[in-house]
Specification:
Blueprint lengths: L6 H7 L26 H8 L14 H14 L3 E5 L2 H12 L5 E5 L4 H14 L2 E5 L4 H7 L4 E7 L11 H11 L2 E5 L4 H4 L9 E5 L13 E5 L2 H15 L5 H11 L2 H20 L4 E5 L9 H7 L6 E6 L3 H10 L4 E2 L9 E3 L11 H7 L5 E5 L5 H21 L1
Parallel strand pairs: 2-3, 2-4, 4-5, 5-6, 10-11
Antiparallel strand pairs: 1-7, 6-7, 8-9, 9-12, 11-12
Helix pairs in contact: 1-3, 3-10, 4-9, 13-15
The chain binds pyridoxal-5'-phosphate (PLP).
Pyridoxal-5'-phosphate (PLP) binds next to α4.
């Protein structure tokens, strides 16, 4: 048997054989909507599923398929499907796993648009959901309802960095026959592989770390069962139609080749910035999974290989001071999204989590003085210098009051 490639090799080689692509070293871009059959019988055989081969790009494309195979490999899954956005992947798996009257149990924080989607599903189809902390089995078990079918989690939770205990989720799911979906966007497959902890499905907004260059919106769904993934390809994905374009897949294949190199540098920089923030008196609280001050650091070290490239921190003052701090930065850009080469900062209370009612935000631990930093690949001294001059500016503003 051929030995399974290690992560760094798989992101560069898996799923591509140059000998069947005119010896092209890199994966060609098959920018085509359809494929011609050699004869009518071949067309019939392909439609009947008796013969493999291409039919139409909504059902599969050779460029997109390379990306899918690579993602399945590095997440430890048996199959993967690429979508036109992270949300197209989220909606496909939720539609696949639920029917009217079911209940979805979610971690205490989920991506804003996932929350929006669940609200639509509740209103239109009576598929309910609830959001809870998932620290241990008891907490999860207590929140189950007779109609619960799916546990849907993100860990670490954005932007509070609270963790979900993946082993506890799996234990409860096993016991009650529930399906588990993990949005692994924040960690990337380099840091955390939820299928190893028993998850049935893992999904990514490929827009973030997987691509890493801020020029693609895409999503990937990985599953532990190859047959079920093929079923999703030929039902929800084909009929809802949220597929990835060949060009976006081509850009993602290119971005993915450096995932491990980029992640290590994102994290090296983030660790130095955490240390820098610890010495900064205008910072009240730092939220970073591998920081000794994080209440779940031990769990983080069990589930994740390193702490990641995202840091949230609370500043002295309120919304006004947080906005002043963002405005005082110059190298660091004010933007949502994450995982790009550029360091980005955002203010969750007025940006990514503005739709969450203030009482809910408070319960989740998102205060008006919390900011989230997506640490990029720039020189870390330059980043710290930018932060330092911004801290100096808000301090002098505070003194003027
Ligand atoms: C960005 C993001 C999404 C949505 O992905 P899109 O590619 O923007 O559709 C889902 N989950 C998380 C955690 C994200 O950060």
């Amino acid at each position: 048997m051929k030995q399974k490639n290690k992560f760094e090799t798989a992101v560069i080689h898996k799923g591509y054989d140059s000998t069947v692509h005119h010896d092209s070293l890199t994966t060609p871009l098959y920018q085509t909507s359809t494929y011609s059959f050699a004869n009518a019988e071949q067309g019939e055989a392909r439609f009947a599923g008796e013969q493999g081969g291409n039919i139409y790009s909504r059902l599969g494309n050779p460029t997109v398929r390379v990306l899918e195979e690579r993602m399945a490999e590095i997440e430890g899954g048996a199959g993967a499907l690429a979508f036109g956005s992270g949300m197209a992947a989220v909606s496909a798996i939720l539609v696949h796993l639920t029917k009217a009257g079911d209940h979805v149990l979610c971690s205490r924080g989920i991506y804003g648009c996932t929350f929006g989607l669940l609200s639509i599903m509740e209103e239109k189809y009576g598929i309910t959901h609830s959001l809870i902390g998932m620290i241990d089995e008891q907490q999860i078990e207590q929140a189950l309802r007779p109609e619960t079918k799916v546990i849907y989690v993100e860990t670490p939770i954005n932007p509070t960095m609270e963790l979900v205990n993946l082993r506890a989720v799996e234990a409860v799911a096993q016991k009650h026959g529930l399906r588990v979906v993990v949005d692994n966007t924040f960690s990337s497959p380099y840091l955390q592989n939820p299928i190893d902890f028993g998850a049935d499905f893992v999904l990514h907004s490929a827009t973030k770390y997987l691509n890493g260059h801020g020029d693609v919106v895409g999503g990937v769904l990985i599953g532990a069962d190859a047959e079920e993934m093929q079923l999703i390809r030929m039902t929800v994905q084909k009929d809802f139609g949220g597929i990835m374009s060949p060009f976006d897949a081509w850009l993602l294949i290119r971005g993915l080749k450096t995932l491990h190199v980029r992640m290590d540098r994102h994290i090296d920089n983030a660790e130095k910035i955490v240390e820098f923030l610890q010495g900064e008196q205008a910072v009240n609280r730092i939220l970073y999974p591998f920081d000794a001050g994080h209440p779940q650091m031990a769990l983080a070290k069990e589930q994740m290989r390193r702490g990641g490239g995202l840091i949230s921190f609370e500043l002295e003052g309120g919304k006004k001071q947080a906005q002043e701090f963002l405005n005082a930065l110059s190298l660091i850009k004010i933007a949502v999204s994450l995982g790009d080469a550029e360091t980005l900062i955002q203010h969750p209370a007025t940006m990514t989590h503005a739709v969450v009612p203030p009482e809910e935000r408070e319960k989740m631990g998102i205060s008006d003085s919390l900011v989230r930093l997506s640490v990029g690949l720039e020189n870390v001294e330059d980043l710290m210098a930018d932060l330092a001059q911004a801290f100096a500016q808000i301090k002098s503003n505070l003194q003027e009051i």
